[in-house]
Please model this.
Amino acid sequence: MAYEIPVTQARAELAELINRVVYGGERVVVTRHGKPLVALVSAADLERLEDDGAEVSEEQVISSVSSIGSAVSTPGERGRFGIAAEHTRHREPGS
Model:
């Protein structure tokens, strides 16, 4: 659970908030009129969040490409989009 603090109070207590995040392992959400504006997290938390986001993105791309990999374009589509070649799956002899 994150500690919430209004922006006016956060401005006055910034050094203390940084210490709470870095040394206390807390997460601080700065609010304005009760709505979240920004979050203070440690650099380690940020790195973890970015790494998790990259993994999800790569998985989504692979899944998307895999799902359209079996689509076959017509000769008219290839000409319309200026595509000169098309990848086909390698077939083993005798299959």
